[in-house]
Amino acid sequence: MNVKIPKLTVVGAGPGDVDLITLKAIKAIKSADVVLYDALINEELLEYASKEAEVIFVGKRKGCYAFQQEQINELIVAKAKEKGHVVRLKGGDPFIFGRGTEEIEYAQASGLETYVVPGISSVSAVPAYQGIPLTKRHSAESFWVITGTTKDHHLSEDVALAAKSTATVVILMGMAKLEEIVNIFS
């Protein structure tokens, strides 16, 4: 009898371009017994999953949740104990505003083996595609990465701090706060 060890691999799916996923991520998807995927991934990546794998959408977009985070955490553990290897496929990099840490910690507390496969983040990919360097000698010696909207739906106070610096500023999840952000930088 083939006993499957319950484990979780949190995988960064990159910024949406299917060619910007790592080989390690593809290997993880191929080995999964269950794939739980986000709204921000390119669904073409699901073609790497085994035909026997269970594939479940657990995505979230502003104001629309297939599952709450606590439910996703519980589903990870339940599916790992039932079927074995769960891959949590998340947009971008799971440790950059992706709640990857929360999922890993919950799984570890439930006795699961855990692994992480970093993903290419939109933090660097989007500016690079547009020819915008995050750092450049003589003009930008550093960069800030800030969430535009905090957990309690406010604009991060770090935006005002970053606006005072000479650094390049990258703001993720800021469209709902765009007017406030523009006013700070004006």
Summarize the structure.
This protein is an alpha/beta fold and 186 residues long. It has helices at residues 23-31, 69-83, 100-109, 122-129, 158-163, 178-185, and strands at 7-12, 34-37, 54-57, 60-61, 64-65, 85-90, 113-117, 143-147, 168-172. It has six helices and nine strands, in the order E-H-E-E-E-E-H-E-H-E-H-E-H-E-H.
Question: How are the SSEs placed, and which strands pair?
Answer:
Layout lengths: L6 E6 L10 H9 L2 E4 L16 E4 L2 E2 L2 E2 L3 H15 L1 E6 L9 H10 L3 E5 L4 H8 L13 E5 L10 H6 L4 E5 L5 H8 L1
Parallel strand pairs: 1-6, 1-7, 2-3, 2-6, 8-9
Antiparallel strand pairs: 4-5
Q: Would you give an account of this structure?
A:
The chain has 186 residues and is of the alpha/beta class. It contains six helices and nine strands. The strands form three sheets. The protein has a five-stranded parallel beta sheet with strand order 3-2-6-1-7, sandwiched between helices. A two-stranded antiparallel sheet has the order 4-5. A two-stranded parallel ribbon has the order 8-9. Helix 2 (69-83) packs across helix 3. It is elongated, with a radius of gyration of 18 Å.
